[in-house]
């Protein structure tokens, strides 16, 4: 097996003692300082700042209107237009979840007057938000479009038990969603 030796570049004295990099960083900092003192700092209006600095004043101003369309926040379950559960408890989201944050206990939902046949649904559905990596694979794999990643980013639990979202909490976060639901399609 042969190898090709790689020649290392020769650094000057300024590069070796990092003076050049320190000078560049200092120039950037001074430029921000001058702009802040003149009241012309970047994103002053968008961040709700006073013009001194570029930091968002967090409790009063939030990122909600600045989040991009592709932002992946906390996962949540959604209901259909008529309030019925969309989840058919197929467990695909549980199987595809890389950190194994989703736990589903499948079962049969009680029949009511609006549907003649018994429906499958989750008896228990839990997502451990401390393990979730917000990859979005659960949303992609769901055949009934029952799980979505919301724009929610303020999800700091106080205890480990608060970090586990149960079925009721997930439906509360998700709300209702319009559109075709395959399991209610009479022609399927």
From TrEMBL:
Please report a single Pfam family linked to this protein. Fer4_7
Q: Which residues bind [4Fe-4S] cluster 2?
A: 97, 132, 135, 138
Residues engaged in binding [4Fe-4S] cluster 1: 87, 90, 93, 142
* Broadest EC class assigned to this enzyme: translocase
**GO cellular component, as recorded:** plasma membrane
4Fe-4S ferredoxin-type domain sequence ranges: 75-107, 123-152
The answer to whether the entry has keyword ATP-binding is: no
Question: What InterPro entries does the annotation carry?
Answer: 4Fe4S_Fe-S-bd (IPR017896), 4Fe4S_Fe_S_CS (IPR017900), NADH_quinone_OxRdtase_chainI (IPR010226)
Q: Domain of life, per the record?
A: Bacteria
- Per the annotation, how and in what number is the cofactor bound? Binds 2 [4Fe-4S] clusters per subunit.
Keywords on this record?
A: 4Fe-4S, Cell membrane, Iron, Iron-sulfur, Membrane, Metal-binding, NAD, Quinone, Repeat, Translocase, Ubiquinone
Known EC number(s)? 7.1.1.-
Q: Where in the cell is it found?
A: Cell membrane
> Which cofactors does it use?
[4Fe-4S] cluster
Catalyzed reaction equations:
a quinone + NADH + 5 H(+)(in) = a quinol + NAD(+) + 4 H(+)(out)
The reply to whether 4Fe-4S figures as a keyword in the UniProt entry is yes
Task: Provide the family line.
Answer: Belongs to the complex I 23 kDa subunit family.
The UniProt entry, under HAMAP family, shows: NDH1_NuoI
According to its UniProt entry, the function of this protein is described as: NDH-1 shuttles electrons from NADH, via FMN and iron-sulfur (Fe-S) centers, to quinones in the respiratory chain. The immediate electron acceptor for the enzyme in this species is believed to be ubiquinone. Couples the redox reaction to proton translocation (for every two electrons transferred, four hydrogen ions are translocated across the cytoplasmic membrane), and thus conserves the redox energy in a proton gradient.
Entry protein name: NADH-quinone oxidoreductase subunit I
The organism of origin for this protein: Akkermansia glycaniphila
- UniProt lists the gene as nuoI
